[in-house]
Gfo/Idh/MocA-like oxidoreductase N-terminal domain-containing protein
Amino acid sequence: MAEKPIRFGIIGCADIARKVSRAITLAPDAELYAVASRSLEKASAFAKANNFPPSAKIYGSYESLLDDPEIDAVYVPLPTSLHVKWACLVAQKKKHILLEKPVGLNVAEFDKIVEACEANGVQIMDGTMWIHNPRTHEMKKFLNDKERFGELKNIHSCFTFAGDEDFLNNDIRVKPDLDALGALGDAGWYGIRSILWAADYELPKTVTALPGPVLNEAGVILSCAACLHWEDGKVATFHCSF
């Protein structure tokens, strides 16, 4: 446990921030310290609706929150297209970052974020919560018990959900200017992460997109799949879909 609670600020009032703000409140070594939106009214309403402590600070701009010297870490639940800008600004303010997944639209964006964190001596963690669950730790014990289960040869992951008409037309995850990776960045992130976790984060030799992806009219992925191969013969597949 930390010597004193880690004081978290949140920039953005996305729906996922409701769940994470409550988790921060429940964590014994964290403090829900501040929230910011693009308007003071929205930030205030968000804090009230999610039972922020009376002492929590409310800001009407992201910049104002980042300028608060009392904040230790910032949770960033903004659309993926905004991650590289705001994560780098958080790092430049010498604050640690909890960044919602996917961390960026491509590797180059993530490299910029990592560079900013290293230059300013701060830590970054992405919002893939299941990787830290005690059950995940127990699952790893099974995978590592080669005498009992043998060598890992095949990994298959699938994450789909049926988005309704409103989701498929209006959610930020189907908008090319907000979350251009679509289902691949949202649901596929978990499938790919689980595969790499099982493979001890060894990158595959080849990745082949499987035929039949589904795109919306804007070209955002609604459904896709791929096959991964390693030099030692391991094979993995993943499928993700809205």
